[in-house]
Specification:
Length: 625
């Protein structure tokens, strides 16, 4: 369970890739990175690439100028006349060197400007997709894997890839520039460029791989380590850790893993050092061979001394650029594999967004919001959570009328919250329809009807905002309405609480920040109700166990608030405390996802079925208390 799927997905590929396999993938990766960079900023992309190319021209110019200078000076013993004769080339050399340095700085600046722009864009796209994707996606383990892969390394790799590609272009341009200069100076020297650079390049690539393979073998342990660290350093487990004196055990686990990590670090450092040493030895031998060949060429008169001197300078620069190029190819390939995770996630999320019934419906041309519905009908509605082999809700048919309260009751897991989620549009029925005054809402844009739905959710969300924002989140896109804020807080029993805060409505509700505070479970629930009530404009209000954490007084006040909607708005109330639902116009009893009884309290009690049994149990337990 602790395996990191996201990491492993491409590990095999990256570990075993041959250089040629990497090279074959390069064009598509270059295209991809270029497209990403261009989309983020055409101007900075063009500047970064353009300056690098011009810097390459300056490199060639500088090397040819070196050749000219050495040619003039070494043709015979140098005299002042020869130095003067070489001065135009010396000036050119100085200018080209300065230009190359300046262009390098400019290219670096352009690349650094580009990176945050690419990051900005990829982040924006990611959070747009993730907040637009239908809710059901979050119940799908395959989607969760893709999401994790994209988030863990994928998004970062998309950004890194752009930088890697610029590095690759820089190295390639420098190698090409040196090769062009050598071709002009003495073509026979070109192969030497590779001979000297390949061993160090190989060592650098192998070193990176060793680190990669080490990381890969340690990923399960690291995930466990992160989990144990989180369990020790976050406030949500801080209480339980101390209640159960679990600290020493967790610390022991942590220390064992940290020790193992240290050992693994030692291992990888040792093998990297050996690899580098081998690379240096071979490279040293190769350099010696190159100089040997140069000397031989000099001795045989194939190459004059002046050309050999220029060649030494060119080969020095060329070998650095060559090993940079090899490293860049490796990095582009590796980051390219992870960037593919992000692209894959984007495609899957976009596909899920596009597959929503309202987007495929032929009739989805109307834009105006629907009117507040007179009747909402569930027609033979079934729903199965993704990846499950049984329905959570099966064949439920039910009419919810404006002005009435419908209560949903039933045992744990009987499907009440699922019905509430279907009603509020979080999920689309697997089969059956939800009709608003006869219109199937699955086929129209949720923006046209969701404005009429307010929810007080069973799972109380502790938004770490100010009290005002926490309530206003119910309609965050609209300007704050002070009167409505006060009314919603009062109706939810949260007004005294908020006004009693040190900073009133501006009180930050997060104890992890300065002057922030935490609340009790019931206080959080009151705020959650206030949020739902603030959103509500007499459309459909779904209240799912809104009083589970409330004291008796607050519960009675909240039920009064809900009851006050009678005659003007539709209310769906889920509650295990049947005292709170006796006034409902109709009570729907669910059992294993099916609607088994429906009617007002008195009828259901008289019928002597499941509801009557539950009612009897609760009445008896109150009577004995
Ligand atoms: N996101 C989910 N993914 C998979 N199965 C789920 C999910 N949410 C709920 N279920 C399953 O669907 C069934 C109905 O759950 P639901 O939350 O609707 O029950 P409930 O009647 O509201 O229960 P409770 O009284 O405990 O709140 C249960 O078997 C539950 O395990």
């Amino acid at each position: 369970m602790l395996e990191d799927i996201a990491w492993y997905r491409h590990a095999e590929d990256a570990e075993t890739a041959s250089f040629w396999r990497m090279a074959r993938k390069l064009p598509s990766l270059l295209r991809q990175a270029f497209a990403t960079a261009w989309a983020a900023s055409p101007a900075w992309t063009a500047t970064a690439v353009g300056l690098n190319v011009v810097a390459g021209v300056a490199t060639t110019t500088a090397l040819l100028a070196v050749s000219d200078v050495t040619g003039t000076l070494f043709a015979a013993p140098p005299t002042w006349e020869r130095v003067l004769a070489a001065s135009p080339s010396l000036v050119l050399l100085a200018a080209a060197t300065a230009a190359r340095a300046g262009l390098g700085i400019g290219a670096g600046f352009a690349q650094q400007r580009l990176n945050p722009l690419v990051l900005n864009r990829t982040e924006r796209e990611f959070y747009q997709l993730i907040t637009d994707v239908p809710r059901a996606a979050f119940d799908d383990d395959a989607f969760a894997d893709r999401l994790k892969a994209a988030k863990d390394r994928g998004s970062r790799a998309v950004v890194d890839l752009v930088g890697d590609v610029v590095d690759l272009v820089t190295a390639a341009v420098t190698v090409a520039a040196v090769a062009v200069a050598l071709a002009v100076i003495e073509p026979v020297l070109i192969p030497m460029l590779f001979a000297a650079a390949l061993p160090t390049g190989w060592a650098a690539v192998r070193s990176a791989r060793l680190m990669y393979v080490s990381n890969r073998s340690r990923v399960s342990r690291r995930r466990r380590l992160w989990m144990v660290e989180f369990l020790m350093d976050n406030r949500w487990t801080a209480d339980d850790l101390r209640y159960h004196e679990a600290g020493p055990w967790l610390r022991g686990q942590h220390q064992a893993m940290v020790d193992a990590e240290t050992q693994a670090d030692f291992e990888v450092i040792r093998s990297q050092t050996v690899t580098r040493a081998v690379g240096q030895v071979i490279s040293g031998a190769a350099v010696a061979a190159v100089y040997g060949v140069l000397l031989w060429l000099l001795a045989t008169g194939t190459v004059p001394l002046a050309v050999a001197a220029a060649a030494v300078v060119a080969l020095g620069q060329g070998s650095v650029a060559m090993s940079n190029l090899l490293i860049a190819v490796n990095t582009v390939y590796e980051d390219g594999l992870y960037a593919a995770d992000r692209h894959e996630f984007d495609a899957i999320a976009a596909e899920r967004i596009a597959a929503q019934p309202h987007l495929t419906a032929l009739s989805a041309t109307e834009q105006d919001p629907l009117p507040v519905p007179e009747v909402i009908e569930l027609v033979d509605v079934s729903f199965r959570y993704p990846g499950k082999d049984a329905d959570a809700v099966t064949g439920v048919s039910l009419a919810i009328r404006r002005g009435e309260t419908t209560a949903l009751v039933g045992e744990n897991g009987s499907g009440k919250t699922t019905v509430a989620k279907l009603l509020s549009g979080l999920y689309t029925p697997t089969s059956g329809q939800i009709l608003w005054d006869g219109v199937d809402i699955a086929l129209i844009d949720p923006a046209r009807w969701r404005c009429h739905v307010a929810v007080i959710a069973q799972q109380v969300q502790r938004w770490p905002f100010t009290a005002e924002l926490s309530v206003r989140l119910g309609r965050s896109h609209a300007p704050a309405d002070r009167d409505r804020l006060v009314a919603a807080a009062r109706d939810a029993g949260a007004l005294d609480l908020i006004e009693g805060f040190e900073h009133g409505w501006n009180q930050l509700l997060d104890a992890e920040y300065r002057s922030g505070t935490d609340l009790s479970g019931g206080q959080w629930q009151r705020l959650s109700s206030a949020r739902g009530l603030y959103r509500d404009y007499d459309g459909l209000l779904v209240a799912d166990e809104p009083s589970a954490a409330l004291d008796a007084r607050a519960e009675a006040a909240l039920f009064d608030t809900l009851r006050a909607r009678a005659g003007r708005a539709a209310t769906v109330l889920i509650s295990h405390r049947l005292q709170g639902v006796v006034h409902a116009d109709q009570i729907a009893v669910l059992e294993e996802g099916k609607l088994i009884e429906l009617g007002p309290h008195t009828d259901l009690v008289a019928a002597g079925g499941a509801y009557a049994e539950l009612w009897g149990l609760q009445a008896r337990s109150y009577a004995t208390e």
